[in-house]
Please model this.
Amino acid sequence: EPEVTQTPSHQVTQMGQEVILRCVPISNHLYFYWYRQILGQKVEFLVSFYNNEISEKSEIFDDQFSVERPDGSNFTLKIRSTKLEDSAMYFCATAGDGNEKLFFGSGTQLSVL
Amino acid sequence: KNEVEQSPQNLTAQEGEFITINCSYSVGISALHWLQQHPGGGIVSLFMLSSGKKKHGRLIATINIQEKHSSLHITASHPRDSAVYICAVRRMGGGSNYKLTFGKGTLLTVNP
Model:
């Protein structure tokens, strides 16, 4: 089965530092999403991205967050100035069509110290 | 109150047992998803439902829109089914198809 690839699998950073989480979607997929899961809590939607722009974002996705698809393949989530509460598992997910099955990456565990 | 409630929170079964996990939601929805989260953290989409019933192998998912309730059944459970099962809903008029509201998950452990 096709895979969504996320890198790195683990990222440790100091508070205030910028981090970029990377996702390689399945090649013909057009819809891209980021979710996060704080340890012990439920998964939360962050942002959806289609046609090179954000189509929807949650209240969590504030000005510290940004997404882009810089080279037409990688899909990135940037956190400009990390806070302790940004520590979480971040999942990228992609779909070929808005109504098709959603494929998740294996996640990036972000730890902010 | 959570918009998506799952029960039970934890479930332990013996291999071969029939498993039912329930999901109730309090908002109007256009679709409901069942997801499986493996012990390592990876998430797999199992079903997307807007009505009726779907079956894939030993897994069956049903939804009753009027009662705002869905169930995930596993027949002939196996230790490899051990995982967290998550219900997530897309609200009516909720924009992106995958702007989902998630339940807290049900931890299933199937013992040999």
User: Anything to note?
Assistant: Chain B touches chain A through 21 residues (CB under 8 Å).
